[in-house]
């Protein structure tokens, strides 16, 4: 068995406004085609746990060690997948954005890097925007030309029976140094008018998207289509496809995205 370094993370910084914490994950190719995880660091509410992988894949779970993000918190996750490595990142529970005492918005910053011939599955659980919260989420992914990225985002506006908080989410992806996707959505109190109208959420409270980047899509882009009444599959100008879905609840969104992922992986294998 190859020894791996599990870094001991320092404590999160606590400021007047809130907590500042960063989690770091590094995946590297190891002997026999396996992936090793030389860096697993977590701070404060961001705990990182190694779990059993399949077929040499590195597998990690993000664990919420305390309630976060609260207003004023600044949380960050960094995941670096080196050339030829394979990493699967999931979470053990949904993330709930809650109001804090500072009156400031919370920030959650995710940075992903996927090297040549590498694979990253980034599959966290739902993000729930509780009433009174204000969260700004930024996700940036840099993907090499022949890498694979499967990225899922799911958001729920309000807990059962409550109004949502303010949620602003931006996703930016580059492939081989070229822009692939850059989009932003803002919902809840104070968001631009129309976010709850028929052109956006139409009164629904759960939304999600699935981005799949695969080199096979360069020569064989997917066919645009509707996936039921409230989801769409769109090819991007690059080796990628984007699924966007809205639904009444998180369970329905997850079902749509799971079925879409199975469809996309099947089409990539068939070269369609």
UniProtKB/TrEMBL annotation:
Localization annotation? Cytoplasm
Top-level taxon in the UniProt lineage = Bacteria
Pfam families hit by this protein: UreD
Q: InterPro entries recorded for this chain?
A: UreD
Record's keyword terms, sorted: Chaperone, Cytoplasm, Nickel insertion
Q: What does the annotation say about its assembly with partners? A: UreD, UreF and UreG form a complex that acts as a GTP-hydrolysis-dependent molecular chaperone, activating the urease apoprotein by helping to assemble the nickel containing metallocenter of UreC. The UreE protein probably delivers the nickel.
**Protein family per UniProt:** Belongs to the UreD family.
Q: What does this protein do?
A: Required for maturation of urease via the functional incorporation of the urease nickel metallocenter.
Quote the protein name from its UniProt record: Urease accessory protein UreD
Q: Give the organism the record lists.
A: Streptomyces polyasparticus
Per UniProt, what is the name of the gene that codes for the protein in this document?
A: ureD
């Amino acid at each position: 068995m190859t020894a791996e370094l599990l870094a001991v993370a320092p404590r999160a910084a606590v400021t007047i406004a809130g907590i500042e914490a960063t989690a770091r994950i590094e995946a590297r190719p190891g002997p026999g085609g396996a992936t090793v995880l030389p860096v697993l660091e977590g701070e404060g509410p961001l705990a990182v746990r190694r779990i059993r992988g399949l077929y040499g894949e590195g597998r990690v779970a993000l664990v919420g060690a305390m309630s976060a993000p609260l207003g004023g918190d600044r949380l960050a996750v960094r995941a670096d997948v080196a050339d030829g490595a394979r990493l699967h990142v999931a979470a053990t529970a949904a993330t709930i954005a809650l109001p804090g005492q500072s009156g400031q918005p919370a920030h959650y910053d995710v940075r992903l890097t996927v090297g040549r011939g590498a694979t990253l599955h980034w599959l966290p659980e739902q993000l729930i925007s509780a009433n009174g919260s204000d969260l700004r989420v930024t996700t940036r992914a840099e993907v090499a030309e022949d890498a694979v990225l499967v990225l899922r985002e799911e958001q729920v506006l309000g807990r059962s029976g409550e109004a949502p908080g303010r949620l602003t989410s931006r996703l930016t992806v580059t492939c081989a140094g070229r822009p692939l996707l850059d989009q932003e959505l803002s919902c809840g109190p104070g968001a631009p008018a129309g976010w709850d109208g028929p052109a956006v959420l139409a009164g629904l409270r759960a939304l999600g998207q699935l981005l799949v980047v695969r080199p096979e899509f360069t020569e064989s882009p997917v066919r645009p289509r509707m996936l039921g009444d409230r989801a769409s599959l769109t090819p991007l100008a690059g080796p990628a496809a984007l699924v966007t879905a809205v639904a009444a609840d998180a369970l329905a969104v997850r079902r749509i995205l799971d079925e879409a992922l199975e469809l996309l992986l099947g089409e990539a294998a068939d070269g369609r």
